[in-house]
Sequence to fold (132 residues):
Amino acid sequence: MIEKIIVGRLDPEAFKTLEAKVESEQENLQQFFLESRFEEMGEIIGERAIFVSPEGATMAGRKGIARYFASLKEGGVGEVEFEPVNAYVADIDSQEHNYVAYIIWRFAYSRPEGLDPAGSWTGVTWHRFNCT
Fold:
């Protein structure tokens, strides 16, 4: 999964930190959806996130994201799959071991009557992390 992420220049220690963070977030997002913990999903995704549908519709912000996933659950969606597909990582102010990462996610789900007619959504989340 994480092997597909493109990160540019990143030392091995920082890559391991990013890998662990992304894998943990992926597991938490899927688990929180199953447990209907939508506010916590919004907290993970954060204020700087934006998701875009194939038709161009967007959702952003913690509350909007929480409402969206709550409506999916109410509509009968049993599971949502989140997959990181790309990342851009940069040093913050050229400080060693201090990074910002923009993770591009894809998520998809199926309704009881079949696949979502809109298809998969993609989104970007922003993370600041360090490895010291």
About this structure: The CA atoms of residues 29 and 41 lie 6 Å apart. Residues 2-110+118-130 form a domain with the Nuclear Transport Factor 2; Chain: A, fold (CATH 3.10.450).
